Amino acid sequence: MTDAIRILMCAPDHYDVDYVINPWMEGNIHKSSRDRAAEQWHKLYNVIKEHTAVDLVEPAKGWPDMVFTANAGLVLGKTVVLSRFLHPERQGEEPYFKAWFEENGFTVHELPSDLPFEGAGDALFDREGRWLWAGYGFRTELDSHPLIAQWLDTEVLSLRLVDSRFYHLDTCFCPLRGGYLLYYPPAFDAYSNHLIERRVPAEKRIAIAEPDAVNFACNAVNLEDIVIMNNVSEGLKQRLADCGFTAIETPLSEFLKAGGAAKCLTLRTTEPILENVHAAVSVETRTIQMQGHLLDAGTLNRALDLIVERGGSFKVLNFNLGTERQSTSMAEVRVSAPDRHVMENIMTDLIELGAVDRPSEEKDADLEAVFAAGVAPDDFYVTTIYPTEVRINGQWVRVEQQRMDGAIAVRKTENGITAHCKLLRDLTTDEEVVVSVHGIRTVRKVDERKKQNRTEEFSFMGAGVSSERRVELVVEQIAWELRHIRDQGGKVAVTAGPVVIHTGGSQHLARLVRDGYVQALLGGNAIAVHDIEQAMMGTSLGVDMKQGVPVHGGHRHHLKTINTVRRYGSIAKTVEAGVLNRGIMYECVKNNVPFCLAGSIRDDGPLPDTEMDLLKAQNAYAELIEGADMILMLSTMLHSIGVGNMTPAGVKMVCVDINPAVVTKLSDRGSVESVGVVTDVGLFLSLLVKQLDQLTTPYAAAV
Ligand code: ARG
Fold first, then answer.
1. Which atom of ligand 1 lies nearest, measured to the CA of 167?
2. Where is mean pLDDT largest: 164-178, 299-313, 628-642, 657-671?
3. Has residue 88 got a pLDDT over 90?
4. How many CB atoms lie within 10 A of CB 84?
5. Is 90's C-beta closer than 6 angstroms to any atom of ligand 1?
6. Looking at residues 682-688, what average pLDDT do you find?
7. Which of 30, 207, 288, 584 is the most buried (most CB within 10 A)?
């Protein structure tokens, strides 16, 4: 028995399940027996009283959850931070608890009324007093943590709850004496688990399984070496015993119906202050602005969702709704994250959505020198497909050669400052690289919405993947676009796989090249081999393309083909010799359409034209797609992904594949310009050529 510890409880005179504010209460309205609840509460009261002193706060009528005194506030020394309940159903308890604390000589701190914090239910001191674990995600707002750290002069470690059954920290987390921790890891996000593991050594972590967790085993009261809890498994009791704790079980089934057990029914009002512990909190906040068709385009929703998904929280400070259909909206949002790492994660995604710092908080980008050629500093900012600007010496500098998955290399010369998107391997030691997430913004076209309206007939192109029924319609639109680009002297790059040949698309793609619709061709060894095989022998990988049947000895055809081209030295020379006189590659040579064949490990041959140095091939691809208005991706996943990574936003991408997964992967760039078509590529090409033939009027005249 110790009197050094005092516990506050509240008799269940008015206890009931009257409403639903957590999943346990669902289906339990008025289902708990008042007599049994009273009996269970008294039993708990007596058990605790056997070990320490208990104070009582008068229950108030009409506030059935007031029994859960853990939610009264958070005490340290003679200071208390009063709870601000999230749900109105419990807000009426606040004045009663406040009065009790004041009567008992506590200094009371109150949070702003719109900043929820649910007391010791969501904030638990390490039992050695070294720091405070504070939960957020359901009831408590992350932004309350810095205030708590300040008022109680303690270090706060923020933990994010992710399972609604464990909506308060004390339902799944219980620090024990001696630095032990009883907890249910799946109730927390990965990053919080990582934080827990960093602070609590493995031999001190008592992780429990779901059956004990749903019995509220973590909702335990730890007094010296005893742990008072609702019924638990023998296994857990034994594990506690192994760590030197005696579990005392006392049934609390009636309170489980409201989502609480032993710990919830108590508040420890004696928490000693440690001399050497001081305020520290890693919570970071930043205020961002977003502008554009935030509602129509769903940008704001996406931004707010991702903040929460990544472990942060937000507050919308200002929102100016564009009143006209064409006018844009502006939102100012305060973003909070438990620490710098999480904040950087969130900001990286927000930048991609077009978020910028509030002008008064704008900072220069952080730069770090490249210490070894081809290696970026650890914290480098990874680029996206969107036009990007970086702030250097107070000036916004446009990043050139935008592509995704690069680093931003900065050079300062007497002629000025330049910024380039570069692949890691191309970084040199005389450059600096943008690190972290300050002073970076992506420029979104505000007229995106307007543009969509102008070309209403094309708007479904932004709708993602097309079903079979819509294929014909989509092909018609693509035909119009192709004609338009050609008539404007624009550029179309095609990346194609061998399936184009196997499905009979060769003649159609050859037509597109011949008629000036293709300005660059990208593919592997295989498409060229099979195209030439078909041109010279009538088979594609040994299958007769007219009869659709394998021919005898046909599997050797493609090797013979390769050999022939090797003899002449290149595809162009084979054409020159008159040996190759039709097909896609023939048309490329004849019409001066540049191509790059990128090699791979499984290539036969290869053809002399195939570039087996992949770095060279990647560079050649990048050069060939530069300035493209549209990229047609025809049944080749790897080449298409490669091309997609090099292509900045704003370039129309049409991805055709029989496999919906490939189409979804490629057309899901979050930009309106991508369209996916799930269909047989041979069929697609034949439809496309047919549509182009029907377009007798020039595009411009028809609009
Ligand atoms: N019905 C109460 C609520 O949802 C239960 C509170 C349990 N208290 C706790 N510290 N976990 O708020």
1. 11
2. 164-178
3. yes
4. 22
5. yes
6. 95
7. 584
Atom of ligand 1 nearest to the CA of 260: 7
Distance CA 297, CA 449 (A): 8
Q: Measured from the CA of 121, which atom of ligand 1 is nearest?
A: 10
Strand-pair category, 520-524 with 388-392: unpaired
4-18, 49-63, 565-579, 653-667: which has the minimum mean pLDDT?
A: 653-667
Closest ligand 1 atom to residue 139 Cα is: 12
- Picking from 417, 446, 475, the residue at the C-terminal end of a domain is 446
| Six-digit token string for 23 | 């999943």
Q: Report yes or no on 451 lying in a domain.
A: no
* Token output for 86: 């999230």
- Domain CATH code at residue 647: 3.40.50.10690
The active-site residue, picked from 168, 484, 530, 639, is 168
- Residue 372's Cβ-count burial label (10 Å; 0-12, 13-18, 19+) is exposed
Place 465 in a pLDDT band, splitting at 50, 70 and 90.
Answer: low
Is residue 386 within 6 Å of ligand 1 at its C-beta? no
> Taking a C-beta distance cutoff of 8 angstroms, is the pair 303, 332 a contact?
no
Q: Which of 592, 588, 583, 532 is nearest to 562 (CA)?
A: 532
Give yes or no: 421 in active site: no
Is the CB of 646 within 6 Å of ligand 1?
A: no
pLDDT value of residue 452: 40
Tokens of 352: 């991609």
User: Considering the domain boundaries, does residue 453 fall inside one?
Assistant: no
456 belongs to a structural domain? no
Are residues 625 and 499 both part of a single domain?
A: yes
Q: Within this chain, do residues 144 and 235 fall inside the same structural domain, yes or no?
A: yes
Please answer whether residues 407 and 422 qualify as being in contact, where contact means their C-beta atoms are separated by less than 8 angstroms.
Answer: yes
161 shares a domain with 69: yes
Q: Is 218 an annotated catalytic residue?
A: no
Per DSSP, 74 falls in state E
Cα separation, 284 vs 267, whole angstroms: 29
Mutate to test the pocket of ligand 1, among 71, 117, 184, 268 (most ligand atoms within 8 A of CB): 71
With pLDDT > 90 as the criterion, what percentage of the chain qualifies?
Answer: 75
pLDDT score of 327: 81
Give the whole-angstrom CA distance, residue 627 versus residue 616.
19
| Distance from C-alpha of 491 to C-alpha of 484, rounded to nearest angstrom | 10
Domain hosting 426: range is 362-446
For residue 120, the CA-to-ligand 1 centroid distance in Å is: 11
Q: Is 48 in the pocket of ligand 1 (CB under 6 A)?
A: no
| Mean pLDDT within 343-352 | 93
Share the mean pLDDT of the chain. Answer: 91
CA 265–ligand 1 middle distance (angstroms): 9
Domain end among 281, 311, 329: 281
10, 172, 218, 264: which is the annotated catalytic residue?
264
162 CA from centroid of ligand 1 (Å): 16
Q: Are 101 and 299 in contact (CB under 8 A)?
A: no
Backbone angles phi, psi at 323, to 5 degrees: -90, -35
Ligand 1 mutation pick, 221, 264, 266, max ligand atoms within 8 A of CB: 264
Do 395 and 507 share a domain, yes or no? Answer: no
**Atom of ligand 1 lying closest to residue 71 CA:** 10
- Please tell me what DSSP assigns to residue 547: T
Q: How many contiguous H segments (helices) and E segments (strands) does the chain have? A: 23, 37
- The domain tally of the chain equals 4
Residue 424's nearest CA partner among 670, 645, 650 is: 645
